[in-house]
Design goal:
about 20% strand; four-stranded mixed sheet; about 300 residues; three-stranded antiparallel sheet; alpha+beta
């Protein structure tokens, strides 16, 4: 049997041992021995070359091993949704009973969650993927960062995450704790900002409110707003806000603040985490400077 024909019957070069046998390859494992031309990916699954598999080949092999109806969840599904999840394991959900091995985690789900085709692979919703990814985490900050990214990038809503965590309670204590801790804050940095705000003892800021000018034209939605003096505090995470388009939006936002006479303090999350006392001093000085000038005619508005 020519290798070209075998590849035509494979998926990205991944093929089942049973298919190989049906094509006349009586013992495919002989070719998977050390130094052989192929390699074993999982029980009953072969890759038709001996080089490093691509991520898509790993995922194809995992789904082939898991069988019909399997869907991708966890960290790999998060990455397919464009979220920055760490973890080398591939987590799949199946309607029946299949055993995983190594970095393949196979879990029986009843009922099976809905999935959609994402670049050729059946992937669960972003909310389900995030919740399942957090089940393998031990770090509160890592889980918080993933939840924040999912919400800020519009992949899912906090309520969708809460619903998923409520429906799939096994191993979800961490993500449920994170959701409770965050409340309206959408990142580790905002959580740290709230703690620092309480510590430095300025007037209690408003969090994530919309600011408009005297004519009702929206200016911005700062992470924290000191309404007594018209001071905005923005926690500008490079990870969440500094893509090309996000950077342009940040510049435009700052221009609107300046035009409206609003003073703004910009803080990187890493500096807030590593040097909170210095950030606190900057906020106090900015608050004093804002109090020393005439407060601009801006106000908090409700946005439906």
């Amino acid at each position: 049997m020519r290798i070209e024909h075998l590849r035509e019957r494979s998926e990205l070069g991944v093929i089942s041992a049973s298919t190989l046998r049906s094509l006349g390859v009586t013992n495919p494992w002989l070719k998977c021995r050390q130094g052989g031309p192929w390699q074993r990916m999982h029980a009953g699954v072969v890759l038709l070359h001996n080089g490093p598999p691509t991520r898509d080949q790993h995922l194809t092999a995992a789904l082939m091993r898991a069988g019909p109806g399997a869907v991708v969840t966890g960290a790999e599904a998060c990455r397919r949704h464009g979220l920055p999840a760490r973890g080398s394991e591939i987590h799949v959900l199946v309607p029946g009973s299949v055993r995983g091995s190594g970095s393949l985690v196979v879990e029986r789900a009843s009922p099976m969650p809905a999935s959609s085709d994402v670049l050729g692979f059946p992937v669960v919703s972003a909310a389900r993927a995030v919740v399942d990814a957090c089940r393998f985490m031990r770090s509160v900050d890592e889980a918080t960062a993933l939840v924040a990214a999912a919400v800020q990038r519009g992949r899912c809503t906090p309520s969708a995450l809460t619903d998923e965590a409520r429906c799939n309670r096994y191993g979800t204590k961490l993500v449920r704790d994170v959701l409770r801790e965050l409340g309206r804050a959408e990142s580790v940095a905002e959580r740290d900002a709230r703690r620092l705000s309480r510590k430095i003892g300025l007037c209690t800021p408003h969090w994530n409110v919309t600011i408009a000018d005297a004519d009702g034209v929206v200016i911005g939605r700062p992470d924290a707003w000191f309404d007594d003096v018209g001071l905005a505090w923005e926690i500008d995470s490079r990870a969440f806000h500094y893509g090309a388009r996000d950077y342009e939006r940040t510049l435009a936002r700052n221009s609107r603040y300046a035009a409206a006479g609003i003073l703004v303090v910009q803080t990187l999350p890493t500096r807030l985490r590593d040097h909170p006392d210095a950030v606190g001093r900057e906020l106090r000085k900015a608050h004093s400077a804002a109090a020393a000038r005439t407060r601009p005619p801006v106000r908090i508005v409700e946005v439906s």
